[in-house]
Specification:
By secondary structure, the chain is mostly helical. A hairpin with an 8-residue loop joins β2 and β3. The protein is built from 4 helices and 3 strands, in the order ααβααββ. The protein has one domain: Arc Repressor Mutant, subunit A (Orthogonal Bundle). It has a 3-stranded antiparallel beta sheet with strand order 1-3-2.
């Protein structure tokens, strides 16, 4: 594992621990967050990275589109991600991670 991926894993672990103490976060938020990390890892840890609602719902086991949209927006509002939807069926939305070096 290279230094960048080690830093990414450490940052991810710190944010998951932070989520555990955040009363706004439910199991669906945590599973979606894990699915986002998997997508980021598969794309080589680039920022921003593209996401697919269908893929994230499959990875996170979220069955409802409404629940998916609620959770991804709340992750954005709460500062866990920066989400930029495209509203285009062929172009994936973008996600940025917060600066994990300061946490």
């Amino acid at each position: 594992m290279n230094m960048a991926s080690q830093k990414a894993m450490a940052g991810y672990a710190n944010w998951v621990r932070h989520m555990a103490g955040d009363p706004r976060m439910l199991a669906t938020h945590v599973s979606l967050y894990a699915a986002l990390f998997i997508c980021w890892q598969r794309q080589g840890f680039i920022q921003p990275f593209t996401i697919s609602r269908r893929e994230l719902m499959e990875f996170s086991k979220i069955a409802s589109i409404a629940t998916y949209h609620k959770c991804i927006k709340e992750l954005d509002v709460c500062g866990y991600i920066c989400y930029q939807p495209t509203y285009h069926p062929r172009n994936g939305s973008l996600v940025y991670w917060p600066d994990w070096t300061n946490n």
